[in-house]
Amino acid sequence: MAPMGMGAGNTLERVYASMGLLDEVEIGFEPSLDVTYGGVLFALPALLVSGLLDKATKYFELPRGYYGLKSIFLLLAFMVLVRLKSMESLRYCAPGEWGKILGLDRVPEVRTLRGKVAILSEQGAPEKWGAELCAQWMESADSEYIGAFYVDGHVKVYHGQQTKLPRHYVSRQKLCLRATTDYWVNAMDGQPFFKVNRAIDPGILQVLEKEIVPRLQQQVPNQPTKEQLTDNPYSHRFTLIFDREGYSPGFMLKMKTKRIACITYHKYPDSSWPQEEFHCHKVKLASGNIIEMDLAERGTYLGGKLWVREVRKLTKSGHQTSILATDYSSDLAPVAAAMFARWSQENFFKYMREHYNLDALIDYNLEDIPGTTKVVNPDYRSLDSAIRSKNGKLNYLLSQFGAMNLVENIETKRIDDFQNKKAALFDEISALQHQIQKLKKQRSAIPAHITVSDLPEEARFKKLATHSKHFIDTIKMIAYRAETAMAHVVSDNISREKDARGLLRAIYAAEADIIPDQQKQTLTVKLHHLANQYSTNAVQQLCHELNSTHTIFPGTNLRLVYKMVS
Fold first, then answer.
1. Coil, helix or strand at residue 324
2. Which has the closest alpha carbon to 76: 54, 49, 104, 98?
């Protein structure tokens, strides 16, 4: 018994599995009381609707053994929802308790689970699975919001020592650190569709043009036909929304020719507009809330290339925030709402970092980078850094020089000191300007980018393996979507909508009784009462909604029935 692990009760099946005589163990539930984390079973209907097991057998296959594909997928999703931040966290959980949740004697050890994930992550299957899920999510998304997509980069800091990744600016830490960048595409309500990983970040414009836009052109449903686009010159296929990093009149013009609208902040707005131009508009956000904004609009010829709509929002302090749009058909208020609601994607990043450990590494494997990949020339970066440093010092000295004025009625003996000090400062400024010009000349003589194969040996690096990370991140996206769907249901029964996710976290972590009834073909999950009657009443309403789905536990004929412990 001991070599099979703590809690291993299916001795005969495990022996068969070790001999290669078992495809996978049959799922079977036994009556169990006070099961730790039993409340996470409340999320099963939402996980299945979000696509956890859809197409799994199409893209993934495990070798013959004790644990089957469905059990591994369910275990990983449940671990995410109960906030186990890594697979190693499973070492400190009772394996038998987790087994009761999945209809097994015990869950696999961490080493076994890692091996299963490694097998599932091979041969590019996670990317294909994620792409099909993305298409499925878009097809089922609310038609009111499917036409607009938020795109933004999320920098993941790497603290390891195996490779020297390029440095990226991390805005939340205000530092340049070794990191990789994931470009995420989200719906207007913040729900994720897909991401693109970049160890060497070429910038949002290149990623948009070469990877994100072609994929959206293929996958976004209900796009106008060629005839409809021809008949209406102001119509567009869909809308991209991004921050100032993506500001580029040239890029917006390219997208306009593809009939793709863009909305972004104006990077170089002109002087303030008269306040008389602003009028109060009622703006509906993706959450359904309606707020009032003081808005004004003009046409702007951008960069001598493109006419765009310039929309400005006037704040109470008098500040004017300017946005640009090539969406020529929508009303003013929806255009403003789309841009100013970008916080939904920022909230998604924040929530995923805090609760789903979005930045965690799944494995520590490295992969070679193609030798033809362009990277920043280290010599160029060194000179550029030196120029920036000296420019900062020069600006400081210039401000000092400009502030030096000869005061009236100054003593004669101090005039010489003043003139000498100003002359010395002028000489220092001149010397610094000469150094900067010399550095700029050196910088202009070398290429800004070179290929990886041309890097000096000490500057070469490898990228982090991405297949396992992509697989687990897809599981996390499914879990987030499932939690969001449940939050919408729960929020109808609580007074404060922002408490919905907190209530769900309490449900997932709560103990439950799991009672199978083979005769009635039911699997009853009785949740223990929560901290207060207010929460318990909301859960009772949730039970009613979940029972109406008539969900069958995967791999069995048992219909899930949700109740509160009486």
1. strand
2. 98
Tokens for 40, please give them.
Answer: 């996470």
Tens-digit pLDDT profile for residues 472-519: 999 999 999 999 999 999 988 887 878 899 999 999 999 999 999 999
Cα distance between residue 181 and residue 204, in whole Å: 10
Helical ranges in 141-264 per DSSP H: 204-207, 213-219, 226-231, 249-257
**Residue 25 domain-assigned (yes or no):** yes
In this model, does residue 10 exceed pLDDT 90? Answer: no
For residues 220, 226, 229 and 235, what is the CA-based torsion angle, rounded to 10 degrees? 0
DSSP state of 340: H
In sign, the C-alpha dihedral spanning 442, 447, 453, 455 is: positive
pLDDT tens-digit profile of 267-305? 999 899 999 999 999 988 877 778 899 999 999 998 888
Question: How far is the C-alpha of 195 from the C-alpha of 182, rounded, in Å?
Answer: 6
168: three-class secondary structure by DSSP: strand
Same domain as 523, residue 476: yes
What's the half-sphere exposure (Cβ side, CA atoms, 13 Å) at 2? 0
Domain identity same for 111 and 135: no
Residue pLDDT, tens place only, 315-362: 999 999 999 999 999 999 999 999 988 889 999 999 999 999 998 888
Q: Is 527 helix (H, G, I), strand (E, B) or coil?
A: strand
Alpha-carbon gap, residue 443 to 433, rounded angstroms: 15
Axis crossing angle, helix 533-547 with helix 500-509, rounded to the nearest 10: 80
318 and 237 in one domain?
A: yes
Residue 465: the pLDDT is 82
Query: Residue 35: what residue type?
Result: V
**Are 163 and 46 in a shared domain?**
no
Using alpha carbons, select from 283, 343, 290 the residue that is nearest to residue 313.
283
186 shares a domain with 224:
yes
**Percent of the chain scored above 90 by pLDDT?**
64
- In a shared domain, residues 324 and 199: yes
Same domain, 207 and 322: yes
**Model pTM above 0.90:** no
**Residue among 520, 493, 518 nearest 507 (CA):** 493
